[in-house]
Amino acid sequence: LARHIPKMISILASAGRVLELQNIPREDAEEEHITANQVGVKVDHLSFGYTDELVLEDIDLEVKPGEFVAIIGESGIGKTTLIRLIMSFMKGAQGKITFVNEQGEEECANAGTREFLSYVPQGNTLFSGTIRENILQGKHNATEEEIWDALKLASAYDFVMELPNGLDTKIGERGHGLSEGQSQRLAIARAFIRKAPFLILDEATSALDSVTEAKIQRAFDNLTVGRTTLIIAHRLSTIR
């Protein structure tokens, strides 16, 4: 009985967390969207802070459809915060964020406008499951050929082929069981397969060695053609 008491406490705590998740209100998402063969974003008088101290203050930014824009600066100045707000991951900001297509049609940022975006964050965002399941998060109906093409573009094909179960190899949360570089390449492959009109790269090659980084940057040349691209970096050399 004494051994079972900690297990019961753990079960109750886990159940409480599940109930908390179920009670989170659904995000606001517009049912009708602007057409988005190419799409840009306008940020008007944006201010935001996690506390009373503002991280972003009265920011104006325009990324036109098809444009390639880089935001460079040291850690802590709000680069990733800006991305999170553009992607509607956070609320409570003052100002306005609007997506604009080539025809000048506009739509305010909401949970639904994420369908315009492919996002590769700093670090990786892999889930527990198989490699195949992780890649398919980018495009649920992707074919086997599309998956392998995305892995080749992200320089992940060779190491996936060498795994005992290939695409069906199981990994842990945040890529547990793979190196940081391998996990990041899978996250990049997921962005490749998505082929959304607006690409956001937030220090996407920070966990890679220089040789692999060079390969992926050449692959990015193909991915950014005809797409709006917003890159976040600490160093100008990364952008060059």
End-to-end Cα distance, whole Å, is 64 Å
Q: Strand content of the residues, in percent?
A: 15-25%
Per the principal axes of the C-alpha atoms, what is the gross shape?
globular
User: What structural category do the secondary elements indicate?
Assistant: alpha/beta
Task: Extract low-pLDDT stretches.
Answer: none
Q: What does this 3D model show about the protein?
A:
The chain is α/β, with parallel strands linked by helices and 240 residues long. The protein contains eight helices and ten strands. It has helices at 4-22, 79-86, 131-136, 144-153, 157-162, 180-194, 210-224, 236-239; strands spanning 39-48, 56-63, 68-72, 94-101, 106-108, 117-120, 129-130, 170-171, 198-202, 228-233. The strands form three sheets. A four-stranded antiparallel sheet has the order 2-1-4-5. The protein is globular, with a radius of gyration of 20 Å. The mean pLDDT is 85.
Keywords, separated by commas or semicolons:
single chain; alpha/beta; four-stranded parallel β-sheet
Layout of helices and strands:
Blueprint: H1 4-22, E1 39-48, E2 56-63, E3 68-72, H2 79-86, E4 94-101, E5 106-108, E6 117-120, E7 129-130, H3 131-136, H4 144-153, H5 157-162, E8 170-171, H6 180-194, E9 198-202, H7 210-224, E10 228-233, H8 236-239
Parallel strand pairs: 3-10, 6-9, 9-10
Antiparallel strand pairs: 1-2, 1-4, 4-5, 7-8
